Amino acid sequence: MQQDHDIIIVGGGMVGAALAARLGHAGFSIGLVERDDAPTAPSGDYDLRISSLNARSLAFIKASGTALPEERSCPFRHIDVFNQDGSGHSLFSAEESGMEDFGIFVENLTLQYALWQRLEQLPSVTCYTHCAPLTTISATSARLLELDNGKTLSARLIVGADGAQSTLRELAGISVSSYDYHQLAMIINVETELPQQDVSWQCFTPTGPLAMLPLPGQRASLVWYDSDDAIKDREQLDDEALKTAIETAFPTRLGKLTRIVARASFPIKRQHAQRYIGKRLALIGDAAHVVHPLAGQGLNIGLHDADTLAEIIIQGRDPGDYVNLLRFECQRRAANQAMIAATDSFHHLFTGAKPLRQLGDLSLQLAERFPLAKRMMMQQANGLNPFKRR
Ligand SMILES: Cc1cc2nc3c(=O)[nH]c(=O)nc-3n(C[C@H](O)[C@H](O)[C@H](O)COP(=O)(O)OP(=O)(O)OC[C@H]3O[C@@H](n4cnc5c(N)ncnc54)[C@H](O)[C@@H]3O)c2cc1C
């Protein structure tokens, strides 16, 4: 039997679930297709995957009626960016940028769970778990989605939010351009002797950045970017040896570590879909683009895609109207392309050959000299209009 919806969203990760919650909250009939289980409530130690959420992302989540638990998130008001050899330094402050804070750090699982809790409250949302798309075909007024559990769904628009390896993107015949940075990011959750304040810092070194993302209390999420081989060697270290390696390599401001809580490594690449839309089809989040995580923007721009698409759908008559989908593509491709280019240049400026690194130092010094430019940069990075008075 065929189930009809206004919109089907494939992928119930943070971006797909956020779009489902926003559109379900606005009264649309939504089918959310997720190949895994529904997320379970986070408890105990903090999960390894942490993301920053900026002002626009937080406003979008709030607009869906979703509440994030304060006890598992950490607001941050300063971003400190500096070079290991002390040649470049720039401190960004939320207050100077006209904002109360830059946003929060939150576990991916906490956000995803909160969104799914919201979906449970919305009568117009149906979640189909443990299933994935097999085929999809478009007709004039609807698109069909055949699932691997034997069900067939139909909707006026199908949205692919199924991550970097998107099945929906593949079924729609949309190719991607991609680039492998040949780097791994080792994420290490730690407990520290010193309290970790409301500052997130990033220290550039010729082999890759070292970053500290604050978590509530005396905890932090460290991100150690390095070559594949160097990270693979570090993965072999036991906790004591890893602690010593971190205390030696990371800036002294981190202080002593009292515990390594968890660790894992992730490959770093960028990827961009050739197009975000097809007939009654749209791609959002990592299904459409993957950016270098050094600026903590991948999830944010995915949520901004969802925000833009939701606004266009809410204002229009037919969620799959091609002209509206074109508007979505125009707005989001330009913004995402700019973010891909910015994170790519950061990577090459700070980890490239010496002349490039000197240029990187100069850009940090210039940012310090021109507070207005700094303020506008931070507002832009937060998804806010830097030309609007607030
Ligand atoms: C080391 C690292 C650090 C990062 N830090 C940050 C940060 O601080 N801030 C930030 O903004 N971003 C950050 N990012 C990026 C961020 O994690 C991603 O952009 C974000 O997770 C993308 O969310 P998504 O929902 O689009 O995709 P995903 O999180 O990949 O979710 C996809 C969902 O679709 C489901 N799915 C997959 N295939 C199918 C299928 N065939 N059928 C049905 N369901 C399917 C999956 O089970 C999953 O639930 C970081 C990334 C890395 C690698």
TrEMBL record:
It holds the Pfam family FAD_binding_3. The keyword Oxidoreductase applies. It comes from the Bacteria. Residues 5-340 form the FAD-binding domain. Its cofactor is FAD. InterPro entries: FAD-bd, FAD/NAD-bd_sf, Ubi_Hdrlase_CS, UbiH/COQ6, UbiH/COQ6_monooxygenase. PANTHER family: UBIQUINONE BIOSYNTHESIS MONOOXYGENASE COQ6, MITOCHONDRIAL (PTHR43876). This is 2-octaprenyl-3-methyl-6-methoxy-1,4-benzoquinol hydroxylase. The lineage of its organism: Bacteria, Pseudomonadati, Pseudomonadota, Gammaproteobacteria, Oceanospirillales.
